[in-house]
Amino acid sequence: MVCLSNDALIHLERGGLVRLGDSAGATVACLEGAVWITQDNDRRDIVLTGGDSYVVESSGLTVVCAIAGPASLTVGKPVVVEPVLVETLHEKAA
Question: Name one Pfam family in it (predicted).
């Protein structure tokens, strides 16, 4: 099994937020600024600054908020590709 990532670029103003539903396994990467991440049923506060990343553990709601001014981030949701498809794509490229 191979996992690929399809990243979405998001720009938030200070206090702006994005809600991620059922995002377990997604990678949140802070490119600029600072963001705060909170997840359903998780007491931890996760803070990322430029260059930091975090893999979401919760399958419930995850909220990402820009906390110290504007922030840019990517959210990459893993995509599972079955081995047969990978082999077929590899054969076509050869």
Answer: DUF2917
Whichever domain contains 54, its CATH number is: 2.60.120.10
C-alpha separations of 74 from 21, 31, 91 in Å: 15, 7, 32
The first and second tokens of residue 85, run together, are 């498809």
Domain tally, the chain = 1
Cβ neighbourhood burial of 43 (10 Å; 0-12, 13-18, 19+) = exposed
Residue bearing the bigger pLDDT, 85 or 24: 24
pLDDT digits (tens, 9 = 90+) for 2-15: 344 467 789 999 99
Q: Look up the pTM and report it.
A: 0.75
